[in-house]
Amino acid sequence: QGYTGTIRSNAGTLGRWGGGAYLSLKSGKFGITGNYNYNRASSPYSDSYMERTNSISHNEKYMTQTGRSKYKGPFQFGTLEASYEIDSLNLVSLSVERFNGDMTNLSNYVVDMKDENHDPYYSYNRNSKSTRTFGSTDLNVDYQHSTHRKDELLTISYKFDHNPNNSESNTLLENLIGAVPGILSQSQKNINKASTNEHTAQIDYTYPTRKGQKIEAGIKYILRKSNSETDQWQNDTLVINSSNDFKHTQNIYSAYVSYEMKIRKF
Questions:
Q1: What is the pTM (predicted TM-score) of this model?
Q2: pLDDT by residue (tens digit) across 224-260?
């Protein structure tokens, strides 16, 4: 009986900070434990420089790319476990676990292309921003019922899993000079919405028939749905592509029966 708790915080020189809390409580027939942590990152810019030589082309011979990039965004993690003992024969328990993050990447580059005589052929600025959402949410609910008969037990369980995986990317081209190829001169935008949801239901039963013998049986069902939809734009024009839409459904059924006996040492 009683409770205990902790709070914490953290910070770093590379732009990360956060905090969290922990709590455990037991009061009568009720018990609960919770843990939560939140962090936010914002990295400093990282500079980069690249040179490339094309040994085949005469016009697009020498390319240089100079720029910088960084990432930022929050992410969090939490768990919760609770149980309630209705009486000596019945117990209900609940657990929730969640992890979630939204990470954004930023980049700015200057691209210069020169011909074989080192004369300017084309150049442009490429600014990109991409965001990705990731994580999972898991929920479990269990009910256990036992009887005055030793080792007799009935368990009913339900579980739900949610896994999002959304993303969005934007590429903007500016200051186009010279003979920039058409495929490179288009601004791009992609939005993807994707997730998987899974439901699981299960019943298990154990019954002792006589001393040293018992029968066990159970059934289980899983429904899993996954989907992904992507929209693409080129220069603010929506590109129609039906292959970017995906849906998948699974129905899984299972059952088992087992009989166990013990005769002396066998």
A1: 0.77
A2: 999 999 888 888 777 777 667 899 999 999 999 999 9
Q: State the burial class of residue 265 (Cβ atoms within 10 Å of its Cβ: 0-12, 13-18, 19+).
A: exposed
Pair of tokens at residue 264: 């002396």
Three-class DSSP labels, the chain: CEEEEEEEEEECCCCEEEEEEEEEEEECCEEEEEEEEEEEEECCCEEEEEEEECCCCCCCCEEEEEEEEEEEEEEEEEEEEEEEEEECCEEEEEEEEEEEEEEEEEEEEEEEEECCCCCEEEEEEEEEEEEEEEEEEEEEEEEEEECCCCCCEEEEEEEEEEEECCEEEEEEEEEEEECCCCCCCCCEEEEEEEEEEEEEEEEEEEEEEECCEEEEEEEEEEEEEEEEEEEEEECCEEECCHHHEEEEEEEEEEEEEEEEECCCCC
Q: What is the CA angle 87-91-94, rounded to 5?
A: 140
Q: Is the CB of residue 116 less than 8 Å from the CB of residue 61? A: yes
Alpha carbons within 13 angstroms on the beta-carbon side of residue 128 total 18
CA-to-CA dists, residue 252 to 56, 194, 200, 219, angstroms: 55, 22, 9, 11
32 near 2, Cβ under 8 Å? no
- CA-nearest of 192, 181, 183 to 131 is 192
For the segment 149-178, what is each residue's pLDDT rounded down to a tens digit?
888 999 999 999 999 999 999 998 888 898
Which residue(s) pair with 193 in the sheet? 229
